[in-house]
Amino acid sequence: MYQDKTVAYYTLGCRLNFAESSTLAYRLEQLGFRRVKAGDVADGADLLVVNTCAVTEQATAKCRQQIRKLIRENPHAFVVVTGCYAQIEPKQLADSVGGIDLIVGTEFKGENIASMLGDLSKHDEAQTVTTRFQEIHTFHASCSADDRTRHFLKVQDGCDYFCTYCTIPMARGRSRNPHIADIVAQARAVAEKGGCEIVLTGVNIGDFGRSTGEDFFSLCRALDEVDGIDRYRIGSIEPNLLTDDMIRWIAADAHRFAPHFHIPLQAGSDEVLRLMRRRYDTALFRQKIEFIKRLMPDAFIGVDVMAGMRGETPELFDKALQFIDSLPVTQLHPFTYSERSGTKALDIKPVVPVPERHERTARLVALSERKLREFYTSQMGTRRTVLWEQPAEGRPMHGFTENYIRVEAPYRPELINVCTEVTLGSTLSESSQGPVIPMDDL
């Protein structure tokens, strides 16, 4: 039915969205669609799929901006918008952006979209297919399969935490997951296709098992036995769900799990953590970070942190900055608090002025850059294993070590998607993605 029809995708937001878009693209390819870039077809694509984000007000504004631009570039396309923004605010989306044909909420995204396309005839107004967030029950299996060496494997969706600033439970529903056996089968399929590295992704992956009575540690141990995968990375895990037993296992017994952790902090003071309704305090966070570093001194630890949450006074922010600076973490992922409709944080006072929020974010970015360079410097001259990735045309070959250091080398096509041991060089250079260490030998 769709032979020789073209489809263009635009994905915003998290790794989870990219994994889901990749899986949908595979399904539409099976139906005959040919993937193109949105601006590369003279008359525009026949189908346009936009997977949206709603984590901040800036994210939804960017979604609207990008959808309008894509519709101008593809004036005849059948336009499908899905993702978190489509779930949370479908009416605002339909009213503010003309030309959308189909808005699909979380329960019906994924392969279900293929059954809603019909003959791709444009609609007079957007048709909306959504449910209340309480009725989101389906787990849509997803795994990225693009040109990158790394695969992003979705192991969990939704969240039961309801932090005061966050819309994710309303966008993705309650925590749910497939069985361990199903995820292991997907990992084996990645290995059979030649994939070497898998990043485990989800909204709250440490909560894995709510649907099946299993647990995340058991999932990791099962995945560690899959032949053909060189390494796994844990995408992000809450500090209260990362157990000491699991840290010990990664340090001493795991064969394929990298010494690379991404652990959200969100606020560096107990006062703001309580306002956020987070499920840990700074003492627990410090214990986890220091325990990791004691067992794995060269581990990479990334940390999410928010600037300008309501109730965060200047004194509390300074306290948070000092706390974060005292931690042996590698890199921060700062983001600016944004008011979101329907969240409990809107009742919290005082309100941090927006310019002050951005100034605090900038201070966190500066701290992150310093910590990252210090970590890279500490790794110079060490022996590491690099998984080489396909570079952009005309660029040097690059890859990442097990502890997530970006390394560059002269291009050798036979090494793409291959792990090799190298000695890291003694100088730092810069790239668009941050610092790079050239290798001394290969």
Characteristic key phrases:
five-stranded mixed beta barrel, single chain, 442 residues, pyruvate-formate lyase- activating enzyme, Rossmann fold, 3 domains, globular, alpha/beta
Explained architecture:
With 442 residues, the protein is an alpha/beta fold. The chain has 3 domains: 6-131, Rossmann fold; 150-379, tm_1862 like domain (pyruvate-formate lyase- activating enzyme); 383-441, no CATH class. 31% of the residues lie in helices and 20% in strands. The chain is globular and about 60 Å long. The mean pLDDT is 93. It has helices at 15-30, 57-73, 84-88, 90-96, 168-172, 180-192, 216-223, 244-252, 270-276, 282-295, 314-325, 354-379, and strands spanning 6-11, 34-35, 47-52, 78-83, 102-104, 127-129, 150-154, 197-201, 231-234, 260-262, 300-307, 331-336, 383-389, 397-401, 406-409, 419-424, 429-431, 434-441. A hairpin with a 2-residue loop joins strand 17 and strand 18. It has 12 helices and 18 strands.
Q: What's the CATH class of the largest domain, please?
A: Alpha Beta
The biggest beta sheet reads: 6 strands, parallel
Number of helices: 12
The neighbouring-strand order within the major sheet is 2-1-3-4-5-6
Radius of gyration: 22 Å
Briefly note the structural class of the backbone.
alpha/beta
Helix and strand pattern = EHEEHEHHEEEHHEHEHEHHEHEHEEEEEE
Instruction: Note the beta-strand portion.
Output: 15-25%
CATH homologous superfamily classification of the largest domain: tm_1862 like domain
